[in-house]
Design brief:
Length: 225
Amino acid sequence: MRIDILTLFPEMFEGPLTQSIMKRAVDKGLVEMHFHDIRDYTLDKHKKVDDYAFGGGAGMVMTIQPIADLIDKLKAERNYDQVIYMTPDGQRFEQRIANTLSLCGNIMILCGHYKGVDQRIRDHYVTMELSIGDYVLTGGELAAAVVSDAIIRLIPGVMSDETSALTDSFQDGLLSPPVYTRPADYHGWKVPDVLLSGNQAMIDEWREQQAYERTKQIRPDLLED
Ligand code: 6GU
């Protein structure tokens, strides 16, 4: 898979996507990440990439020209399955969308900033608009990193234990059950007996029950459908 990220702040991706499992995915050649600085494509002599909103109001709007030229250039080089725009007014990102996107070959992710991009970019290029939740970030970069991480870990070969993605919270519609490791007794804080019993059927049943109880407590909305 190839992910192209279009942003005014490419340095914001130097941390999160270059560590641990994400780094391994790139090193193994399972994913290619490319970061493009939108400002490099502006034809404005002062390198401007934003302007006042028609109709007035506070906040700047990202102009069409640099974004359109960059997207056109990339689309001339390869086909993209999705051109995603990160915006707080997009569709809420969830595991089901990550699963679908993990099957793509090439995706482009455009990060909005300020008041966002000119609507005509959304109308003419963008095929999917995503938000990562009902709160406002200063820009789409952190959200794009979140979406990229969620997608990349689902690519076969990225996770060392491939089955582990299948037992995640949300893959079966429930939160994950509690987990424990050694020691079995830490200063009197004991691991539930059933996990030490060796009876796999009982353990599986306990985990399912715990997952259900946790979901009912914390995320009852997940049980509604
Ligand atoms: Cl995608 N962008 C911004 N700026 N804020 C957000 C978001 C995206 N998702 C949640 N909040």
